[in-house]
Amino acid sequence: MEFTVEFYETDAGRCPVREFLDELRASDPGDFAAVLAGLAKLRNRQYHREPLSKALGEGLLELRHVGKLNTRVLWFFMKGRRIVAVHGIRNKGQAIPARDLDTARERMRDWQKRKNK
Length: 117
Hints:
The protein is an alpha+beta fold. The chain has helices at residues 16-27, 29-41, 98-115, and strands at 4-7, 53-57, 60-65, 70-78, 82-91.
């Protein structure tokens, strides 16, 4: 029972998570590899909980990688065993800034509205 992992795209075709991952690959190849491995693990339900994932509320979850900077990819579930990655961030603290949560939730609502037609 596998899930598929896909990336949010804007109406104009931009893919913010792919852009985030491209920047991460250039700046920190080790963390990039760990996050990519984490995204691959999300295909298996056993990784949908801590320590790899954590629920953030309102249907949003985070994939977590701890390194020099904490790297997170925020995601949500959709029908059909689909996981949609909507936002990526790096920060030193444990808390996710409110603006990043707002961005992720807005993208989640946008994707659900456009893809549930």
